[in-house]
């Protein structure tokens, strides 16, 4: 089983806000209420809305870990229109998110060209409207899975004969 390194996102649970923007996130593209990032429930969740223009939240965090495998995770509580994606540097992490659900995970390798991790609207020029309560980004530390362990045990057993 793989294990996971420490959490990279600060305020990934959207507990802390200042003037309707989440602390520790770099927000680009907000213009009044369209596009906007807003706090629908105090200290709980984040809504990202646009009728077409780009909007993104970003944290710069992965410089020391180029080329390593990572896992992002999101809890989405409202999916009204469009889709939502993570992006590392210029590399979009697929598949995008388009539905409600907790613990939706994606795996990726950190783009060697950038330390920026974006959470952004996916569909250009269309309405994208999502509310999410938590996001997470952690390094994947590979382990021995069950099948590999079974093969190792069988190999060791046969050597004893
Ligand atoms: Ca939360
Ligand atoms: Ca805002």
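^ Assign residues to that structure.
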């Amino acid at each position: 089983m793989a294990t996971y390194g420490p959490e990279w996102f600060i305020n990934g649970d959207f507990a802390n806000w200042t003037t309707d923007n989440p602390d520790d996130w770099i927000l680009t593209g907000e213009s009044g209420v369209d596009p906007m990032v807003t706090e629908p429930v105090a200290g709980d969740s984040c809504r990202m809305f646009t009728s077409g223009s780009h909007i993104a939240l970003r944290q710069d965090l992965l410089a020391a870990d180029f080329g390593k495998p990572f896992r992002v995770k999101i809890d989405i509580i409202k999916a009204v229109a469009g889709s939502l994606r993570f992006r590392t540097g210029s590399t979009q992490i697929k598949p995008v998110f388009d539905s409600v659900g907790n613990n939706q995970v994606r795996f990726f390798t950190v783009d060697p060209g950038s330390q920026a991790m974006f959470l952004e609207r996916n569909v250009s020029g269309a309405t994208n409207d999502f509310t999410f309560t938590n996001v997470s980004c952690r390094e994947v530390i590979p382990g021995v899975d069950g099948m590999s362990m079974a093969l190792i045990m069988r190999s060791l057993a046969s050597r004893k004969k």
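The two ends are 29 Å apart (CA to CA).
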